[in-house]
Amino acid sequence: MRIVLLIAIPFILGACGILSEPEEKETRAALESRSLVALQECHAKYASGAPAVAVARAQCNNAATNITRPSFSFPDLLDVYLANRLAIAERYQKGQLTLAKANEELAERRSQLIAEEQRRLLASRSAVGQEKAALNAMMADGLKTCARQANSVSCF
């Protein structure tokens, strides 16, 4: 189950996005530090790879990972990841999965969630680009009325 830690830490660190304010960076660093300490406590308390404590270990790891929730751009994706971790741990504890298969499934789910996060971030950047283009056009052509609708801006 050490692989779970190796999988969780990049997810925690990579899913946060780029922060611009120093205070936000300090807050994120403090949350990550608290989360890592909690994860270390989980790993000290529950044996790695022991099927009998897989669910308890996953619950502990989920609680530790959830500390960083405020720094996530898309907390719903964190919820899905944590639910996946627990479901996979339950199947492993029941003997329905080997440790290798459990780690493989968790890594696959993590990859899918990272892909979804990237898709959302790109969609968000696209909307911001459309807004900037509309504002630039408005400034070049004189004042116009612009309205934002979902992920686009219409000026007339």
List low-pLDDT spans: 3-8, 10-19
Estimated structural class: mainly alpha
SSE pattern: HHHHHEE
Q: Provide the β-strand percentage band.
A: 5-15%
Helix content: over 70%
Mind telling me the C-alpha Rg?
21 Å
Q: End-to-end distance, in Å?
A: 58 Å
> How many individual domains?
1
Mean pLDDT: 82
**In what order do the strands lie side by side in the largest sheet?**
1-2
User: What is the number of beta strands?
Assistant: 2
Shape: elongated
SSE layout:
Layout: H1 2-14, H2 22-45, H3 54-66, H4 75-93, H5 99-141, E1 146-149, E2 152-155
Antiparallel strand pairs: 1-2
Helix pairs in contact: 1-2, 1-5, 2-3, 3-4, 4-5
What labels would you give this structure?
156 residues, mainly alpha, two-stranded antiparallel ribbon, 5 helices, 2 strands, 72% helix, 5% strand, elongated, disordered N terminus
